[in-house]
Amino acid sequence: MKKFYVVLMLVALTSTLSAQKSLTEGAFENGRWSVAGELGFSRWNGDFHPTTDQFLNGFVRSPLIGLSAEYNISPLLGMGVMMGGYFLNQNDDNERYVARGVYVAPYLSTDIFGLLNAEKLKYWSLWGSAGVGIINPIRTRYGRATAPGNGSDIPVATIAAPPAMLMLPFSLTLERKISPTLSLGLSARFNASNSDELDGLVRGDFNDHFQNLALQVRYRILPESQDHFRDKKFIYQSPYIRAIQKNMERIEELERKVEKLEKLMIND
Q: Mind listing the pLDDT tens digit for each residue in 63-113?
């Protein structure tokens, strides 16, 4: 029986090592992939006019959870896809809006600190991103107040929202590297839409959208070299600067050749 447990432990250990090694082979061997999870809160910015207290209470009652996978084309440029779920529960003196749904959007991102500094910073980065995707409301409930109040006297009814709407996410994420594999970040995102029906109502003068504020944890899938492409030292130079440098190198090479010829002529 003891031999069975020993064999079982060896098989489990071997499987674990093989799984870890597989992350550094094939599609992940170049060290360009990373995944990030986020958890935060949302503010719906539709046809509402909440007070400060109503806004803060609705913000806390509207959690958001998300996941993204990103591939770095260069240390300063990445492309990926984000997905997640939102839960909105907000009101003003006259109306109440309760909804839940999911979203998915491909996006492009760039390290703004790296661009402004002309090279990657060691620990800090500010990633700006823009994407195009869809919002899929799963359940939407809307109600009007029978009398002005704090929202507790608002009867709500389930209404039919469109099955999918265009989503244009624009985000800024301040990220701090804490280890070769992990980074912590604070992300702010504005989710625009081309529809006024996110709340199930059409008023003709305002397209619904919402904003997020979330904490983010990013995990880098490292290659065997333990050097992720996202963190490589990269000095940005325009094509014009590179052309000037190449011409200067050619001039220096010609000068060296001329010096050699002069020495040969002197020796002769």
A: 999 999 999 988 889 999 999 999 988 888 878 888 889 999 999 999 999
User: Is the model's pLDDT at 266 over the cut of 70?
Assistant: yes
Q: Pull the structure tokens for residue 206.
A: 């305002």
Distances (CA, A) of 65 to 100, 140, 185: 12, 18, 14
Q: Give the model confidence (pLDDT) of 171-195 as tens digits.
A: 999 999 999 899 999 999 999 888 7
CA distance 47 to 250: 64
The first and second tokens of residue 96, run together, are 């109440």
CA–CA gap between residue 229 and residue 31 (Å, rounded): 6
**CA distances (Å), 57 to each of 1, 87, 88, 246, in order?**
59, 13, 11, 60
For the chain, the farthest-separated pair of C-alpha atoms sits apart, in whole angstroms, at 108
